[in-house]
Design a protein that fits this description.
By secondary structure, the protein is mainly α. The chain is rod-shaped, with a radius of gyration of 51 Å. The protein is built from 5 helices and no strands. α4 runs antiparallel to α5.
């Protein structure tokens, strides 16, 4: 038996029962709907008439553009740091090669050797002289000995090329 057959056997519905129920109604309160927009509140914004032609129209656009500018600035800084790093690396390599070249220069070796020998001689002489208590060590004496070491160093610096030229002349003969 079908549902329609079972319903036909039962009691008949009144006209009121046959109708669909009425939809609920919204209550109209004149106090709450008198003003939907509060023009005195801070949430209402007015825009100028040329709003559509402005390049930045929202706060989101402004913050995005700000972030993009910051990212570009950071990229420029990183690029300039990379260039400076490469330049410094090149300078360091050049300085290292100059130092190696200078250390292999006979003139430099001669001057350093003369300075070392002069310093050793002055040191031994000073130890013997002032260690025995014959004379007191003063700044004047230290200055004189430092001047002697400097003279030996300068002499070595200027005498080494002369000695090298003489050595080359002897080797050519």
């Amino acid at each position: 038996m079908s549902y329609a057959a079972a319903a036909a056997k039962g009691p008949k519905q009144t006209d009121e029962e046959k109708r669909a129920p009425a939809p609920p109604e919204v209550l109209h309160d004149s106090v709450s709907t008198s003003s939907l927009i509060d023009v005195d509140s801070a949430s209402v914004h007015t825009v100028p008439s040329d709003f559509g032609s402005q390049s930045i129209q929202t706060d989101t656009q402004a913050s995005r553009i700000s972030r993009e500018r910051e990212a570009e600035a950071e990229a420029e800084i990183e690029e300039s740091l990379a260039k400076k790093s490469k330049a410094a690396e090149g300078k360091a390599k050049k300085a290292k090669s100059e130092l190696i070249h200078t250390a292999q220069d006979p003139k430099f070796i001669g001057a350093v050797s003369a300075s070392a020998l002069a310093g050793l001689a002055v040191g031994i002489h000073g130890y013997k002289r002032f260690g025995s208590g014959v004379e007191r060590l003063s700044w004047k004496v230290v200055g004189v000995y430092a001047g002697v070491v400097g003279l030996f160093a300068a002499g070595g610096w200027f005498a080494t090329p002369f000695a090298l030229r003489k050595k080359e002349e002897i080797e050519k003969k």
